[in-house]
Amino acid sequence: MYWLIGVMTLGIAGMILTGIYMELQPDKGVTNRRWFKPAIGTNLTLFVIAQAALLLFGTQEVMAQAAVAEIGKEITLGMGLAIIGVGIPTAFSTVGAGIAVGPIGAASLAVLAEKPEIFGRTLIYLGLAEGIAIYGLVVSILLLDKL
Hints:
By secondary structure, this protein is an all-alpha fold.
């Protein structure tokens, strides 16, 4: 099983190293390199095949362990809905924080281009917008404690 993770790591490492090489020598261009497309294709194919094999072997290994299901507590429909309900505050708060951080970040970058001395103030505004996500996470943790 661990060899599949090693193969996936080699596939990703190959793509990263190719990207670093391309970044360090941008003047040569991709069109002059005949090895570029086959190298990326080989690394990507290696990664996808290893991930599919890991998924196949991993599910077979989990399915073979029937004794583990007997040990765990049975989850009812109500418990499943309660767990989904616990995750809803985090989901909505992170979406709200993302909606808030986008315009605030763009506006703070525009202001910093004109007045760099107010960098700290823009960080405070971004922190306040990101705090929305933390509030949702705290609510979810408090709700999870009640289950």
